[in-house]
Write a sequence for this structure.
C-alpha cells in the first residue's frame, strides 16, 4: 500500500498541467478578453461593436466630441472642433491608430473585464470615454496654426492631464475628403504629430547643451564667449544669426547665440553630450495612455568636431518628439522628475459606473534637482530679458524658442517649449510649426494664446 | 499486529493490505535473506485477516503448513517465511485510541452541505424563471427534480446503507445541478434526457459501490468485464453511427448511446487490482493488450479525444501498478511512434487540428467554434450575462463540447472556475484516501477515475479556448449527454469506494 501511495503522486503532474492551462487561459482573458469579445458576430454587441453603436467621447467639460445614433457615428457640431480633436478622438474608419476610437475601441463598445458585456439596463450599450482635453483650447490651437503644419501640446505638469493636443494637417471626420490619399495637402494626415513625429529641434536643444555644460564646466557665470557671426571648424563654417560680440552663456541662451553652444558642445565632447541627452530622455519612448511616443534622437558617435558643434545647437542629425519636449519641461518644472501626461480621464458605463480613471504617474528623473533649478532660472531669464514677459502676462513663464533649419529649400521650423512656474497655472507646453520661420513669432504666438486660454 | 516469535518484537500492521518481504518498498520489511523481495501479502477482509503467498521462492507456512491458497488467519496463528516466524496478535487498545483522536477533526454535517447545494440550485432555478426577460414558473422544474433526487439519495445513503459521509455525492450533485440548470434553458427536451440519465447514474453509482464491496469478487469478474468491453467496442465498430467525424454512437431503437463512455468504467476495472494480484502478476501484459484494443478502436472510430483520455488513464494506472518510469517512457515512445505512423499514412487527420493556435485566422471555418467560445466567454465577464441570455448556445455542440464557454458566458468566470476546480479537488480526495483505502484496488481505481475526470476536463475547457487542439469531449457533470452523465457517476463510485468509511457499518 505504501508504494501505491507514493506512486499516486503522479496525479500532481496532471494537476500541475491543469493549473498551467488554467493560468494560460486566465492570462489570455485578462490581456486579450476585449479583443475576444469585440467581434462583428457577437450578438451581445448591438451592431457588432462598430463605432456606429459605440459610446460617446467627451471633453473635460462634457462637450460631446463624438457620439452614435442609429448605427452612425457623429461628431461635434463645430467643424473646427472636429478637425482640432481629430487625432485625439480618431476617425470612424480607424485610420488614425492613436485615437481613442481605436485605442479604447473595446471600452467604447461596452466591454470591461469585470462584467464582460453584461449591462444592467438589459441592452449592452457602449461606455463613454471622457478626455482631459479642452475642446476650446483645441479650437484655439487649430485656428492659430492657420493652415500651417505642426504640433501643439499643453499639459498640467502636476496632474498629468493633457489640456490640448493638436496635430495638423487634419481633416473633418464627419466628411473625410475624397482626395485624402492623393492630395499632397493631406500627406501624413493620419499621424498624430505630437506623439508619433520627430522634428529637428534647432535652438531648443541648447537646453541640453546648457545642462551638460552646467554639469561639468565650472565658472560659466562669468565666462565670456566671443561671437563674430561665425567660426570655422574642420574647414567648414558654423554660423550665428547675428554678431553678438562678447557674451555670457546666460545671454547666449536668451539671444540664442549659436557660437556659444557650438563651442560648448565641442568642449564637452561627444561622450558628455550623449550622456546628458540620454539622461534627459533622448532615445526613450514614453507611454501616453498605452501609446508609445516616437523617441527623440541624438547620435554624435560618427560626428567630427564641426558636426558636434552643430549638434549642440540642435542641428546635425538631432531629432526631437514634441511630447518628449513637454515632458522635459514638466520635469524641470517639477524639480527634475516629470509626471507622465495622459488624455483619457475616465471610462464610464451605465449609471455612470467608472471602469477606468486616468491618474498621474511619475516618470523617471530626467534632470537632477539642482540642475533643474539652474535651468529654470536660465529659462526664466530668456522670457524676461528677450522674449518679453507680456507674451504670458503674470504667469512666470520659463521657455526656450527655436528656429530649426531643415534644408531642402524649406523655411525653418519654429519651436517654443516652456512652462509656467506659478502654482495656479501649472502648465507646460511644446509647440512646433513647420516652416513657421522664427520660433517666437510662429510657435510663440500659439503658445501665448493657449496659455492665456488655459489660465482662463 | 504481528509479533516476531523469538524476539517478541512487535510489528504494527498499518494498512488494509500489506506487502511482506525483504524489499525496502514493502509495507512490512523483513530483513531475512531467505525471504523473497515481495514474499506475501497480508490483507484484511470481511472474513478476517488473510495471508497470500505471492510467488515466493521458499513459500509461506501457516502453523508450519505450507499454503497454496489464500488462508484466513486466526489470532495466534504463526506465519513462517524463510527463517522468520510471525504471530498474529490483536492490536492493543492504546494504539486504537490514538488513531481515533487523530481523525477527531470537526467536519461539517453532510446534510448541512447538501442543504447549501440545494439552496444554490434554488437560486439557479429562480434565475432560470427570469431568463430571456419573461417570467416562467417552469424554470423551477430542474430545482424540483434535483431536490427530490439528491435528498432521496441522501436518505438511501445515510439510512439505507448507514454511510456517514456524503461529500463525493454532494459535489456530484452540485456540479450536475449546474449542468442541468444550464441545459434546461438551452433545451428542455435535452434536460429531460439529462435528468433521466442522472437518475440512472445515481442508481448505477450505488450498484457499483455495492458490487465493489468485495474486491476479490471484482478480481474474478475482471476478465468478463474486459471481454464485455471489447465486444461493446466491436459492436460499436460494426453498427456504429458516424456523428460529426467520429463514429462513436450506436442506436438502440429510440435511444442512442456512446459505448466508449461505459468502457471508461470497464477500463478502470481492468486496470486496478488488489495488492496480492499486483504482486503475483507483475507485468502489465494483459492490461496493455486491453488498453491497446480500447485505444485502437477509438482511433479507428476517429474519436481522438476519448483515445487521449484512455491513454492518460492508462499511464496513471500503469505507473501506479508498476512504478516503473522506464515502462512509462517506453509506452510514451511507442505512442509517439504510433502517432507518427498515423500522420504519415493519414495526413488528413492533421487538418482537424490545423486551426490550433491560429483560430482567429480561421474564424469562420475551422476556428468557428473556438472563436465563438472565446468571444462569448469574454462577453460573460466574471459574473455572467445571465442564465438563458447567452448566444453561444446557438453554436453547434455548444451544450456538450463548448459547454465551458456557455457556462462562462451565462454564469460567469468565477462559477466556471469553481466547477473545474471542484473537479480538480477529486484528485485531492483520491490522493488523501490512497493509503487508507481497503485495498490497492480502491486506491488505484480512485486515482485513475479522478485523473480521468480531470484530464477530460482539461480537454474540454482548453480545446475550445485554443490552448489545446479542439477534440470534442464532454465536460464531466456539466455537458449534455446521457451516456456521459451515466459514466461520470459510475466513475464517482470509484472515489466513494476508496473511502474506508463507505463500507464501515455505523455503530
Amino acid at each position: 500500500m505504501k508504494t501505491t501511495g507514493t506512486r499516486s503522486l503522479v496525479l500532481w503532474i496532471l494537476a500541475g498541467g491543469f493549473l498551467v492551462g488554467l493560468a494560460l487561459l486566465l492570462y489570455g482573458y485578462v490581456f486579450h478578453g476585449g479583443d475576444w469579445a469585440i467581434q462583428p458576430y457577437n450578438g451581445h454587441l448591438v451592431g457588432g461593436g462598430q463605432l456606429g453603436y459605440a459610446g460617446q467621447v467627451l471633453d473635460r467639460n462634457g462637450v460631446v466630441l463624438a457620439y452614435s445614433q442609429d448605427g452612425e457615428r457623429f461628431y461635434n457640431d463645430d467643424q473646427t472642433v472636429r478637425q482640432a480633436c481629430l487625432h485625439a478622438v480618431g476617425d470612424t474608419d480607424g485610420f488614425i491608430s492613436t485615437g481613442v476610437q481605436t485605442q479604447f475601441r473595446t471600452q467604447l463598445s461596452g466591454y470591461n473585464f469585470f462584467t464582460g458585456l453584461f449591462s444592467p439596463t438589459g441592452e449592452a450599450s457602449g461606455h463613454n470615454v471622457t478626455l482631459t482635453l479642452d475642446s476650446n483650447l483645441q479650437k484655439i490651437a487649430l485656428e492659430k496654426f492657420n493652415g500651417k503644419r505642426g504640433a501643439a501640446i499643453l499639459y498640467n505638469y502636476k496632474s498629468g492631464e493633457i489640456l490640448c493636443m493638436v496635430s495638423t494637417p487634419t481633416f473633418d471626420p464627419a466628411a473625410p475628403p475624397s482626395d485624402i490619399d492623393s492630395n499632397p495637402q493631406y500627406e501624413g494626415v493620419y499621424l498624430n504629430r505630437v506623439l508619433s513625429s520627430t522634428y529637428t529641434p534647432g535652438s531648443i536643444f541648447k537646453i541640453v547643451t546648457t545642462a551638460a555644460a552646467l554639469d561639468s564646466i565650472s565658472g560659466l557665470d562669468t565666462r565670456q564667449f566671443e561671437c563674430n557671426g561665425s567660426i570655422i571648424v574642420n574647414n567648414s563654417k558654423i554660423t550665428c544669426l547675428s554678431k553678438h560680440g562678447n557674451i555670457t552663456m546666460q545671454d547666449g541662451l536668451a539671444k540664442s547665440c549659436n557660437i556659444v553652444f557650438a563651442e560648448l558642445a565641442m568642449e564637452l565632447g561627444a561622450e558628455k553630450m550623449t550622456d546628458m541627452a540620454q539622461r534627459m530622455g533622448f532615445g526613450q519612448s514614453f507611454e501616453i495612455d498605452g501609446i508609445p511616443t516616437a523617441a527623440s534622437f541624438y547620435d554624435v558617435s560618427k560626428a567630427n568636431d564641426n558636426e558636434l558643434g552643430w549638434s549642440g545647437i540642435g542641428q546635425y542629425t538631432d531629432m526631437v518628439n514634441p511630447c518628449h519636449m513637454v515632458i522635459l519641461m514638466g520635469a524641470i518644472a517639477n524639480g527634475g522628475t516629470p509626471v507622465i501626461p495622459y488624455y483619457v480621464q475616465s471610462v464610464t458605463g451605465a449609471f455612470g459606473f467608472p471602469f477606468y480613471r486616468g491618474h498621474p504617474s511619475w516618470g523617471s528623473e530626467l534632470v537632477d534637482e539642482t540642475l533643474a533649478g539652474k535651468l529654470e532660472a536660465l529659462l526664466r531669464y530668456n522670457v524676461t530679458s528677450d522674449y518679453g514677459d507680456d507674451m504670458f502676462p503674470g504667469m512666470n513663464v520659463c521657455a526656450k524658442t527655436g528656429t530649426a533649419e531643415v534644408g531642402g529649400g524649406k523655411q525653418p521650423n519654429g519651436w517654443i517649449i516652456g512652462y509656467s512656474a506659478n502654482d495656479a497655472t501649472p502648465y507646460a507646453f511644446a509647440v512646433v510649426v513647420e516652416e513657421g520661420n522664427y520660433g517666437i513669432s510662429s510657435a510663440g504666438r500659439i503658445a501665448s494664446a493657449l496659455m492665456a486660454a488655459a489660465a482662463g | 499486529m504481528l509479533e516476531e516469535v523469538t524476539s517478541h518484537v512487535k510489528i504494527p500492521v498499518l494498512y488494509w493490505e500489506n506487502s511482506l518481504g525483504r524489499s525496502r518498498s514493502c509495507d512490512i520489511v523483513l530483513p531475512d535473506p531467505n525471504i523473497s523481495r515481495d514474499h506475501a501479502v497480508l490483507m484484511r477482509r470481511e472474513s478476517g485477516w488473510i495471508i497470500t503467498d505471492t510467488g515466493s521462492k521458499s513459500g509461506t507456512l501457516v502453523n508450519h503448513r505450507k499454503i497454496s491458497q489464500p488462508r484466513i488467519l486466526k489470532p495466534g496463528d504463526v506465519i513462517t517465511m524463510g527463517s522468520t516466524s510471525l504471530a498474529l496478535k490483536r492490536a492493543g487498545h492504546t494504539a486504537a485510541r490514538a488513531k481515533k483522536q487523530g481523525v477527531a477533526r470537526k467536519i461539517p454535517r453532510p446534510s448541512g452541505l447538501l442543504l447549501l447545494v440545494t439552496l444554490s440550485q434554488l437560486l439557479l432555478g429562480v434565475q432560470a424563471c427570469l431568463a430571456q426577460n419573461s417570467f416562467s414558473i417552469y424554470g423551477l422544474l430542474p430545482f424540483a427534480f434535483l431536490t427530490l433526487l439528491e435528498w432521496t439519495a441522501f436518505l438511501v445513503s445515510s439510512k439505507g446503507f448507514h454511510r456517514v459521509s456524503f461529500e463525493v455525492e454532494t459535489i456530484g450533485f452540485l456540479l450536475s445541478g449546474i449542468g442541468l440548470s444550464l441545459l434546461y434553458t438551452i433545451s428542455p427536451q435535452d434536460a429531460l434526457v439529462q435528468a433521466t440519465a442522472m437518475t440512472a447514474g445515481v442508481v448505477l453509482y450505488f450498484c457499483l459501490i455495492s458490487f465493489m464491496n468485495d474486491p476479490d469478487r471484482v478480481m474474478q469478474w475482471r476478465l468478463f468485464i474486459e471481454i464485455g468491453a471489447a465486444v461493446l467496442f466491436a459492436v460499436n465498430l460494426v453498427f456504429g453511427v458516424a456523428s460529426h467525424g467520429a463514429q462513436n454512437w450506436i442506436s438502440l431503437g429510440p435511444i442512442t448511446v456512446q459505448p466508449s463512455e461505459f468502457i471508461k468504467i470497464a477500463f478502470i476495472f481492468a486496470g486496478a487490482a488488489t495488492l496480492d494480484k499486483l504482486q503475483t502478476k507483475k507485468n502489465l501484459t494483459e492490461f496493455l493488450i486491453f488498453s491497446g484494443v480500447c485505444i485502437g478502436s477509438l482511433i479507428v472510430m476517429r474519436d481522438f479525444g476519448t483515445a487521449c483520455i484512455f491513454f492518460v488513464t492508462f499511464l496513471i494506472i500503469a505507473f501506479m501498478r508498476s512504478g516503473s518510469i522506464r515502462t512509462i517512457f517506453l509506452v510514451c515512445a511507442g505512442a509517439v511512434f504510433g502517432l507518427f505512423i498515423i500522420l504519415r499514412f493519414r495526413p488528413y487527420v492533421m487538418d482537424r487540428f490545423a486551426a490550433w493556435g491560429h483560430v482567429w485566422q480561421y474564424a469562420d471555418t475551422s476556428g468557428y467554434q473556438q472563436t465563438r467560445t472565446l468571444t462569448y466567454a469574454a462577453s460573460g465577464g466574471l459574473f455572467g450575462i445571465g442564465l438563458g441570455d447567452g448566444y453561444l448556445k446557438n453554436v453547434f455542440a455548444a451544450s456538450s463540447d463548448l459547454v465551458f464557454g456557455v457556462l462562462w458566458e451565462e454564469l460567469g468566470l468565477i462559477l466556471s472556475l469553481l466547477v473545474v476546480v471542484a473537479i480538480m479537488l477529486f484528485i485531492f480526495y483520491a490522493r488523501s484516501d490512497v493509503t487508507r483505502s481497503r485495498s490497492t484496488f480502491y486506491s488505484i481505481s480512485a486515482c485513475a477515475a479522478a485523473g480521468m475526470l480531470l484530464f477530460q476536463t482539461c480537454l474540454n475547457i482548453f480545446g475550445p479556448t485554443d490552448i489545446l487542439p479542439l477534440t470534442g469531449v464532454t465536460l464531466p457533470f456539466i455537458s449534455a449527454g446521457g451516456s456521459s452523465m451515466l459514466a461520470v457517476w459510475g466513475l464517482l463510485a470509484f472515489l466513494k469506494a476508496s473511502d474506508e468509511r463507505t463500507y464501515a457499518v455505523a455503530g
User: Anything to note?
Assistant: The radius of gyration of chain A is 26 Å.
